[in-house]
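Q&A log
Question type: sequence-to-structure
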Amino acid sequence: MQSREQHHDVVVVGGGLAGVSAAVAAARLGSSVALVTNRPVLGGNSSSEVRVWVVGATAHGTQRFARETGIMGELFLENQYRNPQGNAVYWDQVVLDLVRAEPNLHLHLNTDVRTVATAPGEDGATRITAVTGWTMGSEIETTFTAPVFLDCTGDGLVGALAGASHRIGREGRDEYGEEWAPDLPDEELLGSSIFFSTHDTGRPERFVPPSIAIDLSTTPILANRTIRTGDNGCNYWWIEWGGQLDTVTENERIRDELWGVVYGIWDHIKNSGAFDADSLTLDWVGSIPGKREYRRFVGDHTLTQQDLLTQRSFPDTVAYGGWSIDLHPVEGVYAETAGAQQRYTDGTYEIPFRSLYSADVSNLLFAGRNISASHVAFGSTRVMATCATQGQAAGTAAHLVARHGTTPRELGTDHVAMLQQTLLREDAPVIGVRAMDGADLAPRARISASSELTALDTTPWATADTFALDRDVAVVLPVDPELGSFAIRTVADEDAPTELTIELWTTGKPQNYAPIEHVSTHTAAVASGPGEAVVDLGFRPDEPCNAVVVVRRAPGVRLVLTDGHPYGVLALRARSADDEQFDDHIPEESDQPVTDWEARALRGRSFAFTAGGVSEAWRASRTTDGYQRPYGGPHLWSSEPGDGTAALTLEWAEPVPVHQVRIVWNDDVDADLVNLHHHRTPWDAVPTLARDYRVEACVDGSWRELATVTDNRHRHRVHDVVPVRTSAVRVVVTATNGSPFVTASAVKVY
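Response status: OK
Response body:
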């Protein structure tokens, strides 16, 4: 046995995606970081030990243009390339490689923190001075000291040992006035899960159930849950139990019960005769319950149901979510009711920094399912990609706290702009905050491009395919500066209606992509056969925004479909009672919000339409407008469609010193990516990303190459270049990963 001591700038306990993102964020900014986890692999519930899908703000495509960027985005993109088949073991290595690439990050696997030392600070508040962990298998006890600590353990053990205020269970309705809260507070939790996977061997396979297997006929499972032979892993998210127990103290009991359920389900599949499963065999059953809920810390702000549903804006916003408020019956798999109760927000919502640090332990930050949120709000903030956004914010804050000798509260009170701008410089997932970096030379430059998209027109991609207008449809499109005439191509039967009702709506908030606020209603004539329905919308907003043009159902009329469209244009169809898993919530009155829409069924296609006028939405100058992702418009430069080649040029009146160029490429945050085998895209690198490009500087009238990149598959590229004084910098793209448009979200020059 050995005893060791290590001092770092930042200590992160917990190796899930929140902890990984926190540790990587702080290390990249220059802090010495210890990442301590009690598991042999990183990734927490997403790892090969548990195999939960990494989901987040996209909500499986329900929320649009919502996928996480920053460190979580890097993991999504790298996994998409290296592991498109969704292999859980490969995912482990994607996460591990991210951590091992950081020289300032010191990883301690299999190290269980059990002791926390505290002392009163100068202000009298409790401070953590050290945590001590035992490395299993190595018999090493290590004491970690630092000025700031992060609890990313999920269960919140470090904070609890430090005396940080927290709660377990559900708040009563009166505490925060939450509609979904119970009348009285209680200790009920979301349960834990264990999954399994199978494969077909091509020959008969016997299964003899172990003694632990539960006879499903004695349970409500067969009547209330769907069992299919093709499902694996997180398809069985509803295998959940333990919400009526203490999910930590009773972890072993919960594991055994879940094992019984898993083997009972497999016994039913193999031996009931109800399935064609003769050649199927189990190849993996989890051994560790994937916990959903335990302690939730108390910060200076507690997120509530109303914060999420109203999409409240916070001055200290540092992260975001978009998953539904997703609460499960306490009985879990044995419930007689549905396995989940879900309610979606109209779009993404903000997470404030005040929910990421302790109200009473002065140097404790946290990220993950243990942040300061009510039980109801936690139902959304708990999913792992959202936890990772919190982690990058908390890790960035920890670096700043250590560097400036302050506290999280002081940082959030007096220097929140510094935190937000540091996050934006690193392309962290923050929505609605404009980058204002005084060191960035790009906003002072005159920006031009070899071409700019100025036409709001999808007709060049029109196909022979049509969409029957048996339900309402809509087009989301950027309005910059105005939306006048709108013409949509139709094909009408002889007995079809002779008029279409076309409505104009806005999205309510810049991050939304559904019709929320009604503006006007118009009528357009429709002739039989091929034609166009034309209206003058006459809309000029106070500032650029997204608008939604709704075309009401008209049986007998079809709309022409396209196989391409400019970035930021989105076609939607209203969900129907005939759609699987969806109810009909389509309002008939045009003065009511229309929010129950989907784009997935259209598979990335659009309707053929033309909007009159010149659009400013895709100008080259958008790369320096301070927004690095769609927000009330695409906020990027787009070339005209072509062969994937184009150039962007920045020119200064006088030569400037340049040592670094940062490019934020468009990685299509509307594409829904996951880590494991939920679905597979037809590409391994996002088509909108620039694949081959070079960065050049104009020196003494000649272009000098600063950096050349081939086979790029990343969004945020940081090019440290040989220092040079130059009057111009240009980025020359010679190929994309498949898109006919060259697009870039931001260019920064230092």
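Response note: The first helix runs from residue 17 to 28.
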